[in-house]
């Protein structure tokens, strides 16, 4: 049984700073080292874990706060997300929400500029599966576009400076002949 004199020591042991030593993604647990202490497998606190779930496992070397109820590491939970010199903050802007991945991919939303930027690492791809995708606004593409079905335009399509709706043809003749290419 603890005495009143033990309370400060128990409170101090209830919260420890540590570093992720290993991660078991199959069980969503990790082992944390804090000084000479190495925990058994303990869960990490996820951003969301209800009907909406977020998966972002910790990495070896990541600094955490270890919450140890009653000072016992057997029931501990690792709170993720302390920046360190080796794992510095990916931004210093109060206007940005940034996610940075180990391959160099970055997703940045700057609410002051109202701009979302996604930069994928070399060789990266984006796959979107949806019944319908609606884009309101102008779209610029710097690269080729491949389409496996019909392309529909309510106004006009312009290719190589030629209007699909209004371009004239050369070599027009009556009858069953074919006109020449667009002028």
UniProtKB/TrEMBL annotation:
Superkingdom as given in the UniProt entry: Bacteria
Pfam families given in the database record: Apex (PF18946), Phage_base_V (PF04717)
Domain spans labelled Gp5/Type VI secretion system Vgr protein OB-fold: 18-83
Residue ranges, annotated region (Disordered): 159-183
Protein name as it appears in the record: Phage baseplate assembly protein V
């Amino acid at each position: 049984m603890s005495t009143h004199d033990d309370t400060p020591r128990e409170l101090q042991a209830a919260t420890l700073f540590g570093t992720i030593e290993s991660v078991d993604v199959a069980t969503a647990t990790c082992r944390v080292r804090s000084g000479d202490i190495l925990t058994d497998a303990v869960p990490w606190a996820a951003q969301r874990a209800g009907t909406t779930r977020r998966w972002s496992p910790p990495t070896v070397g990541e600094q955490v706060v270890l919450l140890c109820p009653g000072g016992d590491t057997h029931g501990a939970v690792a709170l993720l997300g302390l920046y360190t010199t080796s794992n510095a903050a990916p931004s210093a802007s109060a206007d940005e929400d940034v996610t940075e991945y180990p391959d160099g991919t970055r997703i940045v939303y700057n609410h002051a500029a109202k701009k979302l930027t996604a930069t994928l690492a070399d060789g990266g791809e984006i796959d979107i599966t949806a019944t319908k995708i609606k884009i309101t606004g102008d779209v610029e593409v710097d690269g080729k576009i491949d389409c496996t079905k019909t392309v529909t335009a309510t106004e006009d399509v312009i290719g190589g400076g030629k209007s699909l709706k209004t371009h004239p043809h050369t070599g027009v003749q009556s009858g069953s002949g074919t006109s020449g290419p667009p002028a």
